[in-house]
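Regression report. Comparing outputs from two consecutive submissions.

Submission 1:
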Amino acid sequence: MIPFSIEEFLSVFEQYNLSVWPMQVFLYLLAVIALILVFIQKDQTDKVINSILAFFWLWMGIVYHLFNFSSINKAAYLFGVLFIVQGGLFAYVGFFRSEKLKYQFTLDFTTILGMLFILYALVIYPILAHSLGHIYPVTPTFGLPCPTTIFTFGILLFSIQRIPWYILLIPFLWSFIGFSAAMHLTIKEDFGLAIAGVLGTVALLFFKPRQNRLVSNFSAS
């Protein structure tokens, strides 16, 4: 059972949105920058993309879960720690891991799926939320866990190598936690979270390695 009502849940969105404004605009711009950098492919673009993802997850863990969501749900302290860990993992694979995460646009199944997830997170999600009566500030804006997790899966689908399982674990778990809450609270715009979690994880674990082998074989020939 969820220990809060839909009214309490929406009031947290309102409290968050009013307290951090205009940070929502900055977070949205960072997302657009990350997407643009996927197409630019300069020496440092991958580090910037991973830094943006790390910042998103640290922001959600600290500002949303610990400072806001915890007012109605004590489990938010655990969620906050997990999101902070995820932010640290993105920093680790972006700067300290020998084989760093790199991103590239190639017209294939995974990148098309990634573009669809990003389109949903940045464009369709807010439009759908508004049409369902979740009017700002009582709405989950970008930078909150559900749309930002969908965006994260979208960016990861542009990776040119297999994503380590530990990078996917927390976003995958959150896709089901968030979807479960959305089902109980009828936050219908969050239903896409479960789709992103399942399809994104399957594509990254099973399709991405296969595509990499095909690209390697093509390059060798």
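Submission 2:
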Amino acid sequence: MISRDMWSFFKRIKHFYTIFPDYETALKYCNPKGYEADEIIEVVFQKTLNFKQNLEKNSQNIIPSIANSFCAILPKIVEKDGQEIKIIDFGGACGALYFQVRNFLPKKQKFRWAVVETPAMVKKAKSLENDELSFYVSLEDAVKYLEKVDILHTSGTLQAVHKPREYLQKLLNIHADYMFFNRVGVNQGEKDVYTIHKSKLSWNGPGNLPDGFQDKWIKYPFSFISESFFLQTIQNQYDIIAKFEDNTGMYPVLGYSIVGYALLCKLKNET
């Protein structure tokens, strides 16, 4: 006979691994605004401010999850040889990656860095803009601003958008010279898996939870698209030139084979 404690455990596991038919259905069981909840936006903003200030004191501290992103930017730095590099950071929150890269590299290396985020995040992050960094609510506006995109960077964002397959194709259609998919999470089966990501408020953004916030659990929809679709779609237009070990953009889902990594891709020669 199963004990009451064991039965309670099984119920929690069942809830944690509930599979939904789509993003919209999963959202009904999450925080009302999902990742656009006011508390999340404010925490990420305040954390980024603190992160930026700490970097200005010590630029040698590099967040482990950002290390792969440095590797992805290096080929373009070599190719450009000091010329301005134009980057779209899809899902780049309040620009933490930009501040990390900017403080690490010499000032002579110039960037035009466009972060694409949710309307709520962009509204909050606008105060962080400078002559290199800007924020946009659509990919189209970011592309229009940059004109030609050298690098399109995204880190764990495809798992959080409402139509990951459509967004993947939108990203590829920009025809950036390089694309870097950091913190990938995909299902090795043929179907896309929609579930709910549960995390602590303090886990969002770089660094510790700022003063004045009470840590708590938050929930928002998460998806793991089919790996075969993901790779085939990318390779229609890009060559995969490097694969990095990284499982930080995924979590186990009972009954499915979820894997994680990062990919650096280069636009195929169309001649």
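Expected: both submissions complete independently.
Actual: both completed, but the second showed a warning that disappeared on reload.
Relevant detail on submission 2: Confidence is low (pLDDT under 50) at residues 6-15.
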